Amino acid sequence: MSSESLERREAIRSSRRARYERMVEIRVLEDAVRALFAEGLVRGTTHTCQGQEAVSVGVAVALRPTDTVCCTYRGHGAALALGLTPLSVLGEIMGKEVGSIGGVGGSMHLCDTSVGLMPTMAIVGAGIPVAAGAALTAQVRGTDDVAASIFGDGAANIGAFHEGINLAAIWKLPVIFICENNHYGEYSRINLTTPIENLADRAISFNIPGEVVDGQDLDLVVDAVERAALRARAGEGPTLLEIKTYRYSGHSRSDTAAYRPEGELDEWLNRDPINIFGARLVAEGLLTEAEIEEIAADAQRAVDEAAAVAQDSPSAGIATMFANV
Ligand SMILES: Cc1ncc(C[n+]2csc(CCOP(=O)(O)OP(=O)(O)O)c2C)c(N)n1
Ligand SMILES: [Mg+2]
User: What is the DSSP string of 12-72?
Assistant: First the structure.
């Protein structure tokens, strides 16, 4: 699994077409997760990231596999982008032995350290101090690796956000704080919970750079994360990136997101990250319209196949539960 994850990671680092394919794969897999959940094949709860694919892929392109990434329970996209296969992700989500950690973690705890993915976390903001810790490791060991924490807009109102960033700023830790602002924390729109327009402005209070990034444009996400990584590798300390995006689905499970203002979803669908990047690759002569169709069909086939294999695989047994204790 590890070498396959690394190969998949290398693919998006070196090829723009592969970046497009990976975003499509994420979209198709997330749609499949919702369907599998509805069929009762995913237990507990699950949080999907349709609409936010450019953030996941952008971060994975800009970082190296030796860098550390912490992310949230909405982490299927980040895991696929970093290199995990559809089978290891779907297997984990379905609680199967073929999953990335043998099915004991499920949807909210994907992990593959061969590509730098720490166990994803269900506690809002929890990855922020952990990423600062991973960055401290790199600093103490004298490597030029960096750490990144991907967290939501809601996490910017959590104590760990302030503690983690403050510590990283004062010690100039090589870490990138990536706030994936999808405009909602559970069922509340950001304007109802947060009194400022741009969360990146909070960087001022830590005396670090803060930048608002258009999360619907993959190339802009890659550029911003690359710049922050360069800064961190050069010993200049952390950066706060606020990547503005939108989650097309509800918060979790069967949430239909009826609380959204009318027309808001359509506005964001008009700037879909997959369509924007696909059109750019067509304009660059790297893709044809026919290939766009083929890529969608191939992704659907691969995800359906992975789902079928996962479904036929054994569930995590009692022994697995104690294996890493
Ligand atoms: C410390 C903590 N408080 C509350 C919760 C319940 N909770 C789960 S998800 C969530 C919303 C977080 O929103 P955001 O950070 O914007 O991430 P998103 O779900 O939009 O990706 C909350 C409040 C939690 N898991 N952890
Ligand atoms: Mg949010």
Answer: HHH-HHHHHHHHHHHHHHHHHHHHHHHTT-S-S-----TT-HHHHHHHHHHS-TTSEEE-B
CATH superfamily of 2-323: Thiamin diphosphate (ThDP)-binding fold, Pyr/PP domains (3.40.50.970)
Q: List, for residues 255-271, the tens digit of each pLDDT value.
A: 999 999 999 999 999 99
For ligand 1, is residue 186 a contact (CB within 6 Å)? yes
pLDDT level of residue 253 (50, 70, 90 thresholds): confident
Query: Tokens 């004991």 label which residue?
Result: 104
CA-wise closest residue to 248 among 225, 229, 265: 265
Q: Which amino acid is at 272?
A: D
Tell me the average pLDDT across 94-101: 96
SS3 324: coil
CA–CA gap between residue 298 and residue 293 (Å, rounded): 9
Average pLDDT over residues 36-42: 96
Ligand number nearest CA of 158 is 1
The pTM (predicted TM-score) of the whole model is: 0.98
Instruction: For a ligand 1 pocket test, name from 124, 162, 248 the mutation site with the most ligand atoms within 8 angstroms of its C-beta.
Output: 124
Q: pLDDT tier at 322 (50, 70, 90 boundaries)?
A: confident
Neighbours of 17 (CB within 10 A): 14
Query: Do strands 68-70 and 239-244 pair parallel, antiparallel, or not at all (unpaired)?
Result: unpaired
Distance, C-alpha 283 to centroid of its chain:
27
How many CB atoms within 10 Å of residue 177? 32
Cross-strand partners of 189: 184
* C-alpha 166 chain-centroid distance: 23
Query: Atom of ligand 1 at shortest distance to CA of 247?
Result: 20
Beta strands 175-181 and 184-185 are unpaired
Residue 1 predicted with pLDDT over 60: no
For the chain, the domains span: 2-323
